[in-house]
Amino acid sequence: MERTAKIIDGKLVSQAVKDKVREDVLSLGEKGISVCLAVIIVGDNPASRTYVNNKKKACKAAGIISREYALDENTTQQELLELIDRLNKDSEVNGILCQLPLPQGLDEKAVIASISPEKDVDAFHAVNAGHIMIGDYSFLPCTPAGITEMLDYYGIEVASKNCTVIGRSNIVGKPMAMLLLKRNGTVTICHSATKNLADYTSRADILIAAVGKPNFVTADMVKDGAVVIDVGINRNSEGKLCGDVDFDAVSKKASYITPVPGGVGPMTIATLLKNTVTAAKLQNNL
Ligand code: GUN
Questions:
Q1: Atom 2 in ligand 1: which residue has the minimum CA distance?
Q2: pLDDT value for 1
Q3: Cα dihedral 82, 87, 89, 93 in deg (nearest 10)
Q4: How much distance in Å is there from the Cα of 277 to the middle of ligand 1?
């Protein structure tokens, strides 16, 4: 059946989240509490630079102070860990974010482990990942929580639905599966070693693509009327920004779909702001 999917508008939903964050920041300000995020970027990866600029801009609009630490790509592991140690101890800093990926030679796992779990607004630290695993957490995993926020906004129920996640990263795939499970979805995680991928995707009522390959999800892989969430941020052969989903064809089959840009991306940043306010509240015993 040919249809036209409803567009899930990430800009609209993220604005609602950001408005609430701004209100929270203002009311903390009335109590004499400022909210501050430290953002670390190492090297000059252009995509990372764009993400960091967007995060700083969003902080400013929400009334959150952002401090940027832009380090040279030849920064040593020790220098980076020393900076994080200083920020962990700095009572004016509520949240610490180290933009990934890091240049070769730096140990991402050790860097994530060095951030104080109370300031880990990405929710990447094993302590916070563990909290997400047991379904009891303060810091939301940014991209997955942004996605559930969009589903809620459009009244899309997860309970008892077949949910298929393509991708098993610690940043998106694994925590996404946990959040869907918490909402009583029946969850399948597919990855690069999955055989007959279409068997799983075509059964999905909710399909989440976090692969990193343009046009990876084609219309024949999607169930009629499915909700399709595209986490990919890729460049196609013409250099244009695109997701993992063949948007034009899949939007004729899905009931709801997220565009790229303007879908999941803005939601990730909105959740980051929300986590930074949560950190400030918890550090002030609120
Ligand atoms: N690189 C890609 N996504 C993210 C993210 O959400 N946080 C950080 N710190 N780095 C990333």
A1: 100
A2: 74
A3: 180
A4: 18
